[in-house]
Design a protein that fits this description.
This protein is an all-alpha fold and 369 residues long. It is built from 16 helices and no strands.
């Protein structure tokens, strides 16, 4: 009897954990009425909660086509998108994104439009991969989250999306950092300095921005005396903008050896780094072991405060490539000019070879029958 009871309990737990439990819909309509459009909407929501997504979409489309002046039109269109979102899978998520975009186009002033935009961002976050893999979805997620903050800055979803954007930018920045570090290890110092400095300029909240600046300064030092000013600037940024970093003391020592000014730490940067240290949650052992098999990136080190960048990373020109200003100072120019060939050109003096084509060689002649 006891064994049967234990087996039954385990079976119920497995069924509950495998998705047979009803999942409540996030945007219900609590208005109690027997109007036919409300009845159709409630039936569709019940089907969505039970996982009968195709049936729910048919019901919602019937409502929208039959009662085109219904007060539930907006909610019905949003529910169709939500049903695709819940269904999951690459095809369903693409359909959900299209439906959310249509909803924002038709109802741009509703609060639900901000929610729809937040869910579009979440669609691409779900499909994000690790920093050393394809970052297409990370770039798309960054664009969508930035759109919400720019179009709906006062929405209740803005604080949540800000943190989502910090997590996304941590992943993108980590991918850029790995490339820059690889260049540094391979002694390709112009490329390393270009990547890492551009990274910190774009994403100053990146968890390894201090180390990126340290490698930037080291790369500039190895490029020679011409780039000492750029190296000193990188070390000064560590002391000023990342004062609690492990590289701060090393940067001060390097600046002292270079006989450069050591700046005072920025109080705002000190407060931000203290907040990050106090709110950092160290991942457990299981989290680290599962990371090997997890497809999604680890955003545990992402910043918890500060305004995320509202501009994406763009390619920049390495210092080894001379700029237009440098070329002008040296008396050179990078302009490309074209001139029309005059009537006395060499081509006009010679006969046109196309008028007298060469005769074929004997071995190239067709054999006679």
């Amino acid at each position: 009897m006891t064994r049967t009871l234990v087996t039954l309990t385990v079976a119920i737990a497995l069924l509950t954990g495998c998705g047979f439990r009803r999942k409540k819909y996030e945007n219900p309509i609590s208005k109690d009425t027997e109007q036919p459009d409300k009845v159709l909407f409630d039936k569709a929501i019940h089907d969505v909660e039970k996982g009968r997504y195709e049936v729910a979409r048919l019901t919602l489309n019937t409502l929208m086509n039959t009662y085109d002046t219904s007060e539930y039109m907006a909610k019905s269109k949003l529910a169709i998108a939500d049903s695709w979102m819940r269904e999951g899978g690459s095809h369903a998520l693409a359909q959900a994104e299209a439906e959310y975009k249509d909803f924002i186009l038709f109802y741009p002033t509703l609060e639900e439009s901000a929610e729809a935009q937040e869910k579009v961002c979440g669609i691409h976050i779900k499909q994000m991969e690790k920093p050393d893999r394809d970052i297409n979805h990370a770039m798309r997620a960054e664009d969508e989250c930035r759109n919400l903050l720019q179009q709906f800055p006062n929405s209740k979803f803005a604080p949540k999306v800000q943190q989502m954007l910090r997590n996304i930018q941590e992943v993108i920045a980590e991918g850029e950092y790995r490339v820059g570090e690889f260049y540094h290890k391979k002694a390709s110092f112009p490329s390393a300095a270009n990547r890492l400095e551009n990274l910190v300029n774009t994403y100053p909240l990146y968890s390894q921005a201090d180390r990126s600046l340290w490698l930037t300064g080291d790369a500039y030092l190895r490029l020679g005396d011409r780039f000492k000013d750029k190296a000193a600037n990188a070390f000064q940024r560590i002391v000023r903008d990342y004062p609690l970093s492990d590289y701060a003391d090393r940067a001060k020592a390097q600046l002292k050896d270079m006989e450069r000014d050591i700046p005072e730490p920025d109080p705002v940067a000190v407060a931000r780094m203290k907040y990050e240290q106090e709110n950092y949650e160290k991942p457990g052992l299981v989290h680290g072991m599962a990371g090997v098999f997890r497809k999604s990136p680890d955003t545990n080190k992402a910043a918890k405060s500060g305004n995320p960048a509202l501009t994406g990373i763009r390619p920049s020109i390495p210092v080894s490539i001379p700029t237009a200003e440098a070329l002008a100072a040296a008396g050179a120019t990078a302009d490309v000019t074209a001139a029309t060939v005059g009537p006395n050109a060499e081509l006009d003096k010679k006969p046109d070879s196309r008028l007298n084509p060469p005769k074929p060689k004997p071995e190239e002649q067709a054999p006679q029958k």
